[in-house]
Amino acid sequence: MKKNSLEILWIFARISAASFGGGYTVLPLMQHELVDQRGWLTDQELADIYALVQCQPGLIMINCAVLITVPRFGKAAGICAALGVMLPPLLVVLLVSSLLNNFAHLPAVQHALAGIRVSVAAMVVHTAWRMIKSGVRGWSSLLLFFLSLLLLFLDLVNPIFIILGSALCGILLGLRKQKGQNAAPANAEKKEEEA
Predict the structure, then answer these.
(1) How far, in Å, CA of 53 to CA of 23, rounded?
(2) Is the dihedral of CA 44, 47, 53, 59 positive or negative?
(3) CB of 127 within 8 A of CB of 25?
(4) Which of 31, 47, 77, 84 is the right S-S partner for 9, CB 3.0 to 4.6 Å?
């Protein structure tokens, strides 16, 4: 499936320009633009990509953009998506750094920044809710969710170990479920033979 490189650059530049607050706030924007509007991927696929980039070095949004575009549209699209993500912050940082020292003390600027922080918090909560709805299914994943949340709140374990531990638990639970599914047909055949 071919896509116009400029279109991809523009899409990701638009998402990037609207994502105040970093990588965590970009997910609802990506969900709206790439899942709801364009249908490039599902909520589950986006949540999986987002979980995967948490385990990678580098910037969350650039990693997401590349992992979304390269498998679907090729390497050139991945480069354009990464450039689209980088350009708006670069331009904004250049502008803000030249102006902030002169205007940071103004009450209007301080109030604007406080307002942005509140909306960013709302976006993070919204993103978390959508990820919970698509990713937490069944008692085992609910238990894993609350255990991870507790460890994060208590600050007992580095988040990377929580992610790696959750991945290991996911593998073990998946193998256990698969073993149970394989055992069910064997038991049914055995009962038929006995009858």
Answers:
(1) 10
(2) positive
(3) yes
(4) 84
